[in-house]
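In response to a reviewer's request, we include the raw inputs and outputs for one of the modeled complexes. The two entities were modeled together in a single run.
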Amino acid sequence: MTKDTLYNYTLHLADNALILAQRNSEWCGHGPVLEQDIAITNISLDLIGQARSLYQYAAEVFNKKEGREATEDSLAYLRDVREFKNCLLVEQPNGDWAQTILRQFFFSTYQYGLYQQLQQSTDATLAAIAEKSLKEVTYHVRWSSEWVIRLGDGTAESHDRLENALDELWMFTGELFTPAGYELDALKAGFGVELTALKAAWEQKVNEIFAEATLPDAASRAGVWMQTGGKEGVHSEQLGFILAELQYMQRAYPGAEW
Amino acid sequence: MNTVTNISVQKIWSILEEVCDPEVPVLSVIDLGVVREVKVASVSEEDDVEVVITPTYSGCPAMDVIRMNIHMVLLLHGYKNVQITTVLSPAWTTDWMTEAGKHKLKAYGIAPPNPKQQVCNTHLFAEDEAVQCPHCNSYNTRRISEFGSTACKSLYQCNDCQEPFDYFKCH
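The model returned the following structure tokens for the whole complex.
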């Protein structure tokens, strides 16, 4: 029971990091200016690093349980859409720069609170990964916050684009704080994080940055329908396309190495 | 631990001085501070060696190469049973870098991390860290980009000598 929970919980954290990394990496060579192209792909690299640590641990947990050989690669490259447990937010398309920035800001702010709590996890490996990753996420929060302000409080054009991004993405933020079954079990078992407790701090940070960005605060969107399902494997149409590209090589040439 | 093993441990630490960071080849893994521990067990005629390392950044692609190079260099010195273990906690910071490493970085043209971390927080639009130009020693420099050519560096330019340079950023 706990092994299943630990496996699913770790996979969920890993999938969030991998899918957002894959999305951000689509900007490689297409960033609005060279420095920001490098920034967004550096953030991808940090997230891939976190995903690797988490997949390696998930594979270790799985192999102890099943006596079979899962690896970080098999978990990333050989699972299908329904087996992925990432939240819907991270799989949403890049859109324009404003949409990419806002998605990163929402997610990094969430991940910052999550990893802060996870550092106290009773699971020593998860705690260590959180401690390590938090330093990187700190950079991501600062960088994306600055960009939200720069765009929101910038020109009429950049402000409009950010508002459009907000319309697109807000409905996926509720899922971050709606625990899946394995998250509740993880909390009960002592190694998980109380998500509902993270929500207030997340909203406060969002409101603080939105105020500077001249955007309406979170309360103005209180009635918006929140879409969930990703954490339980019920994804938007987007994830299939992401995996088709991400997994192409291993699917076409199984076991290929270079 | 017996004396023979102690000598072996010392010897392996000095061998590891030969393993360089592939991205910043002027630094050894010892300078960089990524080797946490060396353990030697003399159970049979051949020593079992365990080297415990820690990554600088989670996604640092150099770690795989470093792992392989540690294996290679120890093999060259006759150690066949080598295990390399990765630990994440306590997380690496630039404080783990040796003073010798910082001097080597500067001589190589990369500004070493400042001794006191100044901007490792979520404060927005923080003032650029005062970073000394590794070429002309001026502090009149400015940050061009927070993210640089590798995960561990940001890009600066000197306002006096105009040279752009990498800064091994606070972490």
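As requested, we also summarize the result in words. Residues 113 and 168 of chain B are 5 Å apart (CA to CA). Residues 62-76 of chain B form the longest helix (15 residues).
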